[in-house]
Amino acid sequence: MKMTCFKVLTVLTAALLFSDTVQWVHGAPTQAESKCPLMIKVLDAVRGIPAAKLSIKVYKQKEDKSWELLSTRVTAEDGEVHDLVKEEDFVEGVYKLELGTKRFWSKVGISPFHEYVDVVFPANDAGHRHYTIAVLLTPYSFSTTALVSEPIETHT
Question: Of all residues in the chain, what percent are helix, strand and coil, respectively (each to 5)?
Answer without folding.
Answer: 25, 35, 40
